[in-house]
Target: BON domain-containing protein
Amino acid sequence: MTTRTSRTILAAAGLGAFLALGACASSRNLDQAFTDMSSNAELKGVLFSDRTHDYGDVDITLYEGRLMLTGTMKSEDGRTKLIQNAWKADGVKEVIDEIFVGDGTGFGQGVEDARIDQVLRARLIGDKDVVSGDYKIAVSGAVVYLLGVARSQAELERAVELARTVAGVEKVVSHVALRGPLVQ
Model:
């Protein structure tokens, strides 16, 4: 066996181990994560091919088949078309509509939203009482939207509190479900 082949095998084994550990470290299973990634890519393809509306100020957040749409559309017709398109992606079980109809996000607000997003992600990762991998975040117009699954009501309240206390946050909207009892 050549050195190059050995390195390739080791790299593939390392990637497999990394993915397996990631699946074990998170309460999500690997199959659901791949389904979400596939649905996300499929939906982005549908939106990209639809030239009737500008979807540039829309964020797509997907977790376990629950699709949350945030941002702005310029018209009610555009918002309606976006929601229709959202249902076209395989694996989408629920569409959560948090779209505002109006002007798009300005550059300054976009920078502020990105800052809020990064601060909150760091807080969730650093908090021992929250499993950060179980939460997806979207920030639009200084409103934080949370999507995911909490292990308990206390964890959910902690995640909301972490979001609420980030400087600049005007409102927190939670679409986080409580995880049912784990079956052994």
In short: The longest helix spans residues 3-25. Residues 107-178 form a domain with the Histidine-containing Protein; Chain: A; fold (CATH 3.30.1340).
